């Protein structure tokens, strides 16, 4: 997904329930980051893994996925996250990967409103920003990525269940699901 240039070196850790990639973001400060693939459910006889990402606190094994670090290295960090996706599929070739943003979860807008300085009127401008980054990447590289992967777009339904359709470029989705061809 991302070339080896412009990515941080990372360490891989695998347990029976997760696949993790840990790396250091080096910008204004040094911040430990983690990409976590966790099996969440089955869909059409495939294990579905959620891609989680955030700041990592090794001392208590805590992951903070709601913070914006603003470390000045966003592209390198994003490329590093993308570089782990083919590695995930090497280990779980028959699985499906789901990407959502932590700012897409139920209750995010209400939480944001309590501390936000943007004073949004109708809807929270910070809501769904993270999934938009992934969606924009897929849109930009859709033809190339489609050579190796199938994509589904997901909409949040009742009780925040994901309703899927074949990915249609240009549509705004709440989740992106992908699996290898």
Question: What does this protein look like?
Answer:
The chain is α+β, with helices and mostly antiparallel strands and 181 residues long. It folds into two domains: 99 residues, no CATH class; 82 residues, no CATH class. The protein has four helices and nine strands; from the N terminus they run βββββαβαααβββ. Strands 1, 2, 3, 4, 5, 6, 7, 8 and 9 form a nine-stranded mixed beta sheet that branches. The longest helix has 18 residues. The model has no long low-confidence stretch (mean pLDDT 87). It holds the Pfam family DUF6934. InterPro entries: DUF6934.
Order of helices and strands: EEEEEHEHHHEEE
Our Rg estimate from Cα atoms comes to 16 Å
Q: What structural class should be given to the helix and strand makeup?
A: alpha+beta
Percent of residues in beta strands: 35-45%
**Range of helix content:** 10-25%
Q: Tell me the distance between the termini.
A: 15 Å
Low-confidence stretches: none
How many helices? The count is 4
List how many beta strands DSSP finds: 9
Largest sheet: 9 strands, mixed
Number of domains: 2
The geometry reads as globular
- On the 0-100 scale, what is the average pLDDT? 87
InterPro entries: DUF6934 (IPR053865)
Strand and helix layout:
Layout: E1 10-14, E2 18-26, E3 30-43, E4 46-57, E5 62-64, H1 74-91, E6 96-99, H2 108-115, H3 129-140, H4 142-145, E7 149-156, E8 162-166, E9 175-180
Please describe the structure with a list of short key phrases separated by commas or semicolons.
single chain, 181 residues, alpha+beta, 2 domains, nine-stranded mixed sheet, 9 strands, 36% strand, globular
């Amino acid at each position: 997904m991302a070339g080896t240039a412009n990515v941080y070196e990372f360490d891989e850790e695998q347990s029976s329930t997760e696949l993790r990639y840990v790396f250091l973001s080096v910008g204004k400060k040094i911040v430990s980051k983690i990409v976590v693939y966790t099996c969440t459910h089955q869909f059409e006889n495939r294990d579905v893994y959620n891609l989680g990402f955030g700041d990592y606190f090794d001392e208590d094994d805590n992951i903070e996925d709601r913070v914006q670090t603003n470390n000045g290295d966003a592209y390198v960090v994003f490329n590093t996250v993308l570089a782990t996706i083919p590695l995930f599929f090497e280990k779980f070739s028959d699985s499906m990967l789901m990407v959502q943003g932590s700012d897409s979860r139920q209750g995010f807008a209400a939480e944001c409103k309590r501390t936000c300085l943007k004073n949004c009127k109708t809807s929270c401008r910070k809501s769904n920003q993270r999934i938009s980054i992934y969606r924009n990447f897929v849109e930009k590289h859709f033809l190339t990525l489609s050579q190796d992967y199938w994509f589904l777009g997901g909409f949040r339904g009742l009780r925040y269940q994901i309703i899927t359709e074949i990915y249609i470029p240009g549509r705004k989705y709440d989740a992106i699901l992908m699996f290898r061809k």
